[in-house]
Write a structure and sequence with these properties.
It contains five helices and no strands. The chain has 115 residues and is mainly alpha-helical. Helix 2 runs antiparallel to helix 3 and helix 3 runs antiparallel to helix 4. The two termini are 22 Å apart.
């Protein structure tokens, strides 16, 4: 998803945008759950981790945008979480870790907070 495409999504009502963000996070969680279950190809691993990384990169870009309506402290906290997610996905891709549990849990927390 490009910035312009994501910006179009954000321009929708807040409710619709949050629903799409929840859906995107749910898709990422499903992919990570398949990795945790252990039956996946190397291609599945790379695609799943790249999906999570791209999703969080888009979310972070939105949060640093001057027109983002979240309070500064909340934005900073979510950006910190996003940077951790990106780094953890890189660690898994580089095989410096093999535990996706933390990624699943943090993505669930953020998704559920978007209710």
């Amino acid at each position: 998803m490009t910035w312009d495409a994501y910006e179009t999504v954000v321009e929708d009502s807040g409710h619709e945008a949050r629903a799409r963000e929840r859906q995107a996070l749910s898709l990422g969680i499903d992919r990570l759950e398949r990795l945790r279950q252990g039956s996946f190809s190397n291609e599945d691993l790379i695609e799943s981790l790249l999906y999570i990384r791209r999703l969080w990169t888009i979310l972070i870009e939105d949060l640093v945008h001057p027109e983002n309506g979240f309070p500064d402290k909340l934005r900073a906290d979510i950006i910190s979480i996003g940077l951790w997610v990106v780094k953890e996905a890189d660690r898994l891709r580089d095989q410096r870790s093999n535990d996706v549990t933390g990624l699943i849990e943090i993505n669930r927390l953020i998704r559920d907070a978007l209710q």
